[in-house]
Sequence to fold (275 residues):
Amino acid sequence: MKIHVLLSVLLSFVAAAICGNFNQDFDITWGEGRAKILDNGKLLTLSLDKASGSGFRSKNQYLFGKIDMQIKLVPGNSAGTVTTYYLSSLGQNHDEIDFEFLGNLSGDPYILHTNVFALGKGNREQQFYLWFDPTKDFHTYSILWNPQSIIFSVDGTPIRQFKNQESKGVSYPKSQPMWIFSSLWNADDWATRGGLVKTDWTKAPFTASYANFNALACTAGSCSKKSSVNSWFSQSLDITGQERIKWVQKNYMIYNYCTDSKRFPQGFPTECSTA
Ligand SMILES: *[C@@H]1O[C@H](CO)[C@@H](O)[C@H](O)[C@H]1NC(C)=O
Fold:
């Protein structure tokens, strides 16, 4: 009995680790033909024009995982466009782990915006420039989410860590399974230079591409204790990772809620003291 359970968990884990086919793992949820799965499930594209954006969602819900996606962002003049890629449990008191890419004029830098919600509470924005042009090639955006911490990485370089600080009374996402979502939409009222630069619709349709999805993850209900056999489940930042995160934060971070004293005149949120 026990062996049987362990085997089936291992098998579902292996399956989750190797498939990475958009037809198998995702549903297109909106955009009336603007989202496309191509190349036998190896490639997915989202597009945006004046009438609508588009989006997709994972078939599975995940409770912890190491989730990688390669994304090539809207090239050229992408001002006013926003490409989102995030995990969310939806609903009131939801948990959420966000990547959002805010477009820009040709040659001007995208902003990578991140946030973490636990039990409905977010307000934990950190923003970065990237050290490469994210529209030229695919780059890997990863979320490692385990009971100890959430680590955001870009091409294997950690850029942000949100530690479990429940012992200090800070809520942490750990019991609500999350779907993976992505969308491409228009937000030219705020996205580029705070809304100053509007979308040039003569350049539409705008397109972002996705490839090589890979999830070492637990799907809802099928992987709690057993995942302790997987190293990602207990992985934390090693010394190199800590040095990389410092490098990114020193050179590429452009906003950190934990240092925004105008916003928090009464003192910073609890997690900021060690985040
Ligand atoms: C766009 O470029 C401007 C000018 O370099 C910069 O201030 C801004 O942060 C960039 N990104 C966005 C999304 O506005």
Notes: Residues 102, 104, 108-109, 111, 191-193 surround 2-acetamido-2-deoxy-beta-D-glucopyranose (CB under 6 Å). Residues 2-18 form the longest helix (17 residues).
